[in-house]
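Quick note —
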Amino acid sequence: MALNTTPVTEDNMTMPAQQVSNANLQSVGLVLASVACGAVGQLTLKAAMNSLGSLQLSVETLVRMATSPLLLVGVAIFGISTLLWLFALAKADLSFAYPFLSLTYIVVLFGGAILFHEAVTPMRVIGFAVIVTGVWIVARSEKKKQG
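Predicted structure written out below.
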């Protein structure tokens, strides 16, 4: 599967607003896939660190971490997330794409609650609502440009 990305050059830096808007909207899937991988990566890293038990800063600890299959999977998932993010940035405005990364907080909040029995306090739920509202506002601002 080849991704159709248009590199930023002097010729297309003055792209019409409609083309920039379409590129932003086309990149949403890549951004969301990057967010999903980032969140899964965080949850995997947390599970890996929990499985390692008590740690102290030492060579032995670093070797245990470097040879932990679960930790290596978490790092690989982050690598995939980074690649997806880079492809998204090749198409979208940074100011449009970046707020979507905050969705990672939401996925990790609920993943932490479900997988690690972490508390979801009312203040965290309010924070979740603020994040969702902010992302919704950014997404809506892009749709208004099209009209």
